[in-house]
Structure formats: C-alpha cells, structure tokens
Amino acid sequence: MAWATPDSYFEQMDRWLEMEGEAERQRMAERRTRRGGNPERTGETIVNLRLVDHRTGLAGRYLLSLGKPAGERLPMNRLKVGSPIVISDEDRLDAAGVPGVVSKRTPTDIQVAVEQWPDAKRLRLDLSPDEKTRLRQAAAMARARSVNGSQARLRDALLGLHEPRFHEERPVEFVSRLNESQQEAVRFALSARDVAIVHGPPGTGKTTTLTELIVQAVEDGAKVLACAPSNTAVDNLLERIAPHSPSVLRVGHPARVLEQLRSHTLDELVEADEGTAIVQEILREAEQLMRGASKPSRSHRGHAYRSDLYAEAKRLRQQARLMERHIIQQILDSADVICTTLTIDEELLGDRRFDLVVIDEACQSTEPALWQAALRADRVVLGGDHCQLPPTVLSKEAQREGFGVSPMERLVNRLGGDVFRRLTVQYRMNGALMRFSSDYFYDGQLTADVSAAGRRLADMPGVDAPDDQHPIIEFWDTAGASWDEELEPDGESKRNPREADWVKLQVEQFLAAGVHPDQIAVIAPYAAQVRLLRNRLPIDGLEIDTVDGFQGREKEVVIITLVRSNRTGEIGFLADERRTNVALTRAKRALRVIGDSATLGGNPFYALLLEYFQQEGEYRTVWELDSIDF
Ligand SMILES: Nc1ncnc2c1ncn2[C@@H]1O[C@H](COP(=O)(O)OP(=O)(O)OP(=O)(O)O)[C@@H](O)[C@H]1O
C-alpha cells in the first residue's frame, strides 16, 4: 500500500490502531464474561493460581511468582514475557483487576510485575488489551507527523516518499567470518543515509549480519539502539552482540534468563553499582522512621513528632529515588548499544538519541510499532523476511484493509532492490530440503553452505538411519482415507485425530532410531491439534507447537501435521503461504509432512508443494501403512 503524504499515512494508522484496540477490548470482555467451558482453552487466561513467591523490583514494583496448586504445569498459553495482563480475584471477576506485565516464565510458574498487591487467594491472569503500548505508539506517530529537518527526511524515506540515499560504500574489516552476501549487506547498510533493509531468508544468518553491522557502527563511534518486536528476538540479538561489545545494555524484561544475558540487564547493572548500596541504606533508614512513626503514642507532642518522622521518611525516599534515577542515567549514558523491544520505555530513555537504529524481525512489526524507535536516529536499518510470519493483527477488518503488512514488506514492495540486500547462503537445511522454499519465495537464489548441503539423519552420532544419500523429505497423503478434521469440543480450533495417531508413530520411529526428543519438532497450524498431540505425547524435551512457536528456530527433524481434511477444499489460514514456509524451513535433516491432497491440492501453492515432494523426496500414502486402523 502506498500513501501520498505523511498525513494520509498517519491518519490511516491512527484508525487501524483504534480498530485493533477495540478488537482487543472486545475479546477480553468476551473472555471474562464467558461462562462454562474451559477458560484456559483460549491460551489467554490462566485460572486457579496461587502466590508462590514475591520480591521487590526496580522502582518499588512487586514481582509476584504465581503457580498452580501442587506445582502443576501451567496450561499452554500466550502470556509471554512483556505481555500486559490483569490479575483478578477468581471469585470476584466483576471487580476491576490489578494491571501488570509478565516478567518471567517457567513451565510451572509465571512471574508478573505489578504496582499494586492483589488481595486474593485464588488468582486468575488474563492477557489484557495493551492500552499503554497503543498510547505510546499513537504519541510517537503524532510526533513523527510534525518533525522536521533530518527526522522528517528519515520519516519520508521510511514512508517510501523518496528514494533511499546512500554514501559510497567503504571497505570494512569484518570481525566475524561472513559470506559474500552477508558482507555485501553489511557494507550496504553501513552506507545508508536514511534507511536500508537486510532481507534474511531462513537460516541465512540475518542476526549474525545485523550483529556485525552493529559492531562495525560502534567501532566507528556510533551509539546504537538495537530493537525487535518480541523479547525473545531482542535476547537473540543481545546474546550475539554481547561477546563483541561489553557495553551493551538490555532494558525491559529479558525472556530468556541466561547468565550471560542477565549481567547486561539494567536491573543487574543498577544492583552492581556502588551507589545502590547507599540508596538501599537510605531506604532502610526511611523504613525505620516510618515504623517509629506508626508506633502508638497518646501525647499531644507525639502527634507533631510523628508527622515530622513521616515527612523525613518521605524526604529520604525521594532522595533515594533521585539517586536511583541518576545511577540509571549514568548506566544508559555509558552503553554503546541499548537493546529493547519496540515498545520503548520513554520515561527511562527520555529524549535520548542514537546514531543508528537497527530493528531485527522487522516483518513482525505493525506500522505504528515502528515509530517509537525510528524517531531516535537519522538512520534506520531493518532486518527480516517478509516471506515468513507477518505481524499478528486481531481486528479482522483492519487486517482486511491491510494492517497486516509490515513496514519492511511495504518498503520492499514499493522500492524493490534499491532498498535491500538479500542474504543468499543458508546454514540450516540440507540442499534438497531448501529447494522448494528457495524456488517459490526467493527467486531460486538460496544456496546451502557446504556445512549444511549434505546433512543427513544417518550422519548424526548414535542415530541408526538408512545410509541413504538423500535427506528424509516425505509427504504422506491421506486422500480418500477419511481422516477428517474435526472441531475441538467447546472450541473453535480444528484438529485431526488420525493425523495425530500418525504423528505419534513417526515420533516413536525417530526416537527408536536414536534421535533425541529435543531434536524433534512437531508443528501443527492449529492450537487444538497441538493440545491433542501434547496429551498423547508427553515426552520430556519433545517440542510440539504451532508455527508461531517455531519462527526463528530450527530442529534436526520436523514433523508437520496440516490438519485440514474436508470435502469442500476449505484450508482456512493454511492459505497463508508464509506460515507454511516457516514450518517447512525449520528442519536440518528430516521433514515429514502429513496432509490431504484432495483438500489442499486445489490451492496452487499446495499443488506445487505436492509436486516438489514427488520430485525431490518421497510421496507416500497412508494406505501403505500396515493398518490404517491404528
Ligand atoms: N557466515 C557464516 N558462517 C558460518 N555460519 C554462519 C554464518 N552466518 C550464519 N551462520 C550460522 O547460521 C545459523 C543461523 O544464523 P542466524 O541465527 O544469524 O540466522 P537468522 O537468519 O537470524 O535465523 P532465522 O532464520 O532464525 O531468522 C547460526 O547457527 C549461525 O552461526
């Protein structure tokens, strides 16, 4: 989509943002008032939680760890680190809950940061509409609308209103070993005067390339803001940058609590700062004064004395807060690279500007999410792949109108090759496994690096697989076998029990051959099928998830169940080819897919995919199985 002026663009975005807000609010209201059925089924609610532990975080927030009774595992849910939530009293759902943010997750516990103590025994968590983020995005867009000078030039370049401009490329001494297309992308991005894009198809080292770009920019003396839409993607970047640049700082909640990441978080750095001991001492003193003041006293003088103590305690608290703020600002000042999600804590970063903003996974960002980060420098580099998952949009109407198109996709479509460089060597898939995706999505430009090109299951230590020269690439067709899809009881999601039986058989075969459970991914497009499979295959280490859970990840073996099988050829959101592209490109050595060619084959994309399996791999039918009544 193209807009003729900044005003028309921002007016459209304000409208879509409002529609999205309305869709989120409606969804939460429906969830909270729905009676009967299992409220956890949506993945947006967890019920029957108890307080397991608590502590105090920065700026006096409470960090509450919540879990099920007897340490039961939490249900499959979409409450990720950084998600806004509401905690409510399970028995008083009509009362307004306490708002907060998820700050950590384990299989059995979920930690949330809140400013108020929730007063209840049985707690419920609901994913909440993200009003705060929306307000920040709307405010950033309002600013972007009225900027001038170099910022206006960048804005207009990001809107595609003028061609991107570049300096002459300069020679670069790379710190990592990069292939030719990666080197070219770094030189290109370093030469950008306003905007440049690094297009990274699956496994091509997009994050590796963006990391090199950041390291090079820092060597040139630049201050860099490194962002991504999700906490996990920010952590990925941070993990790569940290070994090269000690002064990299992570703000916000890290989703992965790795030791090497923790030492870069603002919380840890503040804690390690010498000044923090003094702040804590002052806070202790303030607390003592408060305690003294709250002791009962009858004398008249006592009353005045008490209010003096309160006033002094308040003064000390303010002093401590100021000192803490000063420490934080010093830490921010000394960082060469600051890593954060696109939802920027404006209070923390103030009007700090950078020489370069880098946004990884930029194709998972909506347009309004771009502007908080983009306005903080005159140069922006976006990295991503518009042929993989687009941003999530709830409002069906906004989606239909085009809200699901990320800024990166829009720019690539509008400006073409002038604005991006594509990485073309991939390090994940065996060459044959890669071919379909390369031909269909990437103009046949991908090649497999020698380290990956010949990867086979038989080469894995301890695995007893046929010593075939080919990787495993199989499509199992259920056409005519009546392995029909069904609607999950009390739900809207689809599942296919017979395909689930087949998946179980495949997993058992791979395990028997010596493949470790954590080397296998089972991918299903529908949450109901994921739930069914998780019940049937409770194997430690085996990951069963929807496509979204696997974006950016890889496994030795991937099993995909496509679920849809009906007489009308309806394929629902399988029609989004990019979703299937992600699923197909996670495997390094073995890929087995099950689906119904009669249902899928009417779609030209799946017709080509089936052809690929016939040519490159094996095309089998479930009629071959010893008994299809297993
Ligand atoms: N030039 C290179 N030489 C050797 N290995 C490389 C090179 N570039 C990337 N890799 C390897 O390829 C793998 C993928 O790299 P990276 O995670 O940077 O890719 P990505 O494109 O961000 O991945 P995704 O497909 O998940 O978005 C990593 O294991 C990385 O070490």
TrEMBL record:
Q: Fetch the InterPro entries from UniProt.
A: AAA+_ATPase, Coronavir_polyprotein_1ab, DNA2/NAM7-like_C, DNA2/NAM7_AAA_11, Helicase_ATP-bd, P-loop_NTPase, SF1_C_Upf1, SMUBP-2_HCS1_1B
Do you know which Pfam families this protein is assigned to? AAA_11, AAA_12, SMUBP-2_HCS1_1B
| CDD domains per the UniProt record, alphabetical | DEXXQc_SMUBP2, SF1_C_Upf1
A Gene Ontology cellular component where this protein is annotated is: chromosome
Q: Report a single Gene Ontology molecular function.
A: 5'-3' DNA helicase activity
EC number(s) in its UniProt entry? Answer: 3.6.4.12
Q: Which residues form the Helicase ATP-binding domain?
A: 174-426
**What keywords tag this UniProt record?**
ATP-binding, Cytoplasm, Helicase, Hydrolase, Nucleotide-binding
Where located?
A: Cytoplasm
Q: Which coarse location class applies to the principal site listed for this UniProt protein?
A: cytoplasm
What sequence ranges are listed for the domain AAA+ ATPase? 192-360
Q: Where is this region: Disordered?
A: 22-41
First-tier enzyme category under EC: hydrolase
What SUPFAM superfamilies has UniProt attached to this entry? P-loop containing nucleoside triphosphate hydrolases (SSF52540)
Q: State the family named in the UniProt similarity comment for this chain.
A: Belongs to the DNA2/NAM7 helicase family.
What is this protein called in UniProt?
DNA helicase
